[in-house]
Amino acid sequence: MKIKVALVQLEAGADKARNVAHACELVASAASAGADFVLLPEVFSLVADASLWPGAAEAIPGPTTERLAEIARKHRVHVLGGSIIERSDAPERCANTSFLLDSAGTLLATYRKMHLFKVTLPDGVVFDEIEYTAPGADPVVAETSFGRVGMTVCYDVRFPELYRTLTLSGASIVTVPSAFTAFTGEAHWKVLVRARAIENQTFVLAPNQVGTSVSGVRFHGHSLIVDPWGTVLAEGAEDEEIVTAEINTGRVAEVRARLGALDHIRDDLLRKLSEDRSE
Prior knowledge:
Blueprint: E1 2-9, H1 16-32, E2 37-39, H2 53-56, H3 63-75, E3 78-87, E4 94-101, E5 107-112, E6 118-120, E7 126-128, E8 140-144, E9 147-151, H4 160-168, E10 173-175, H5 182-200, E11 203-206, E12 224-226, E13 232-235, E14 241-248, H6 250-258, H7 267-278
Parallel strand pairs: 1-2, 2-3, 9-10, 10-11
Antiparallel strand pairs: 1-14, 3-4, 4-5, 6-7, 8-9, 11-12, 12-13
Helix pairs in contact: 1-3
């Protein structure tokens, strides 16, 4: 099955209302240009110090999901809301949550980021979501009209066991909405995204933020659409843009038939490691 995917590479800031309105405009533009699946980056609705996240958190379903659902219905397009800050039961904590809408605007799935990021940049700026964010507990694979979609967020890309779990749960496409920093991105971004595609023989769709946050964190951009062989079908630059490519989901079966690496998984090694660590 052939579909056109569009990665919205944008620069979000501390004005949540402006960010959401801008994201909606870009999603509508991509859909009007023929996209079947439009993806936003991580925290597209708010880029601010993590200490401000709990106060800006909202429910899912909620205002932001409903605005994007209207666009999905109007344009008959699937939309990945890269991630927004979701309200939790604890007022001082929140979740970094990705959500997937189908072309009828129905909320298909939500995924709460499992691996939380902390880094100290060379200039001393600390980016830390651990103090105010609760990690998710469960991998998520959603059923869509074009195949099963595994959902991850940004820092998750450094943890291959999550991607293998999604693959073994039937994912043929994996999403990686991100706010990858330029500091780590220049060294690791493309290598990690391509590696997750190659080792799992899946499409990987990775929209990323651009620009610089108010706290001085510069984002990497270079949104990527990668096929199951690891070929980069499209790559963004470092400014706002919509990155597009046509993908053929049949390519997954073709690559897996040609190179049967998934049939050679030694899960006994993981079991042994788990047993050894529990002793």
